[in-house]
Amino acid sequence: MEQTFVMIKPDGVQRGLIGDIVYRLERRGLRLVAAKLMQVSRQLAEKHYEEHRDKPFFGELVSFITSGPVFAMVWEGQGAIAVVRQMMGKTNPQEAAPGTIRGDLALSIGMNVVHGSDSPESAAREIALWFGGETPLKYERSMDRWI
Ligand code: DAT
Ligand code: MG
Fold first, then answer.
1. Residue 144 CA to ligand 2 centre (angstroms)
2. What share of the chain is helix, strand, coil (3-state, %, to 5)?
3. 91 a known binding residue?
4. Alpha carbon nearest to ligand 1 atom 16, residue
5. Structural domain spans, the chain
6. How far apart are CA 96 and CA 110, in angstroms?
7. Are the C-beta atoms of residues 86 and 98 closer than 8 Å to each other?
8. Does domain 2-86+112-138 sit in CATH 3.40.1380.10?
């Protein structure tokens, strides 16, 4: 079963949106297999966003993601990586479709409330980076056979 890394960014935590975002993912049929509320270190932030190291917004991105607690999660389900990306909406919330997380809950590209892995390679890398050493739970919900 496909797994993806999802993070509610500091703006989402500060605005009390953890429940809203988790609710959406659960209702879609995805299964939560790991989660933690945590303060991100500069080192972890830089590793997580290493593909953006040379971008002009890298410094801002790292200070933002370390500015308060984030809620880091692993979600599992058929096509989970692409499904979560669709549910998140476009990177710039002003272009994100209504009904998506960013399209419903955010306005600025710098504070777009949620991160989701963009490929199987980044999902594997990010799950190892954020939850390395911890084994995501293996469990079945009785409703899973209806999804
Ligand atoms: P996504 O989060 O949709 O995967 P990304 O990986 O291209 O988007 O960029 C990572 C984050 O960096 C993004 O969520 C917000 C920030 N970001 C991206 N482009 C930006 C820009 N042009 N100006 C400011 N922040 C930007
Ligand atoms: Mg990305």
1. 29
2. 45, 20, 40
3. yes
4. 110
5. 2-86+112-138
6. 14
7. no
8. no
Catalytic residues: 115
Is 0.90 surpassed by the pTM of this model? yes
One-letter amino acid identity for 104?
Answer: D
**ipTM for the predicted complex:** 0.98
Distance 81 CA to ligand 2 centre (A): 12
Q: Is residue 9 within 8 Å of 113, Cβ to Cβ? A: yes
Measuring from each residue's beta carbon to the nearest atom of ligand 1, which residues come in under 6 Å? 52, 57, 61, 91, 109-110, 112, 115, 118
Tokens representing 2 are 């496909």
Residues 111, 9, 43, 137: is their CA dihedral positive or negative?
Answer: negative
On whether 92 is known to bind a ligand per the annotation, the reply is no
pLDDT in tens, 55-83: 999 999 999 999 999 999 999 999 999 99
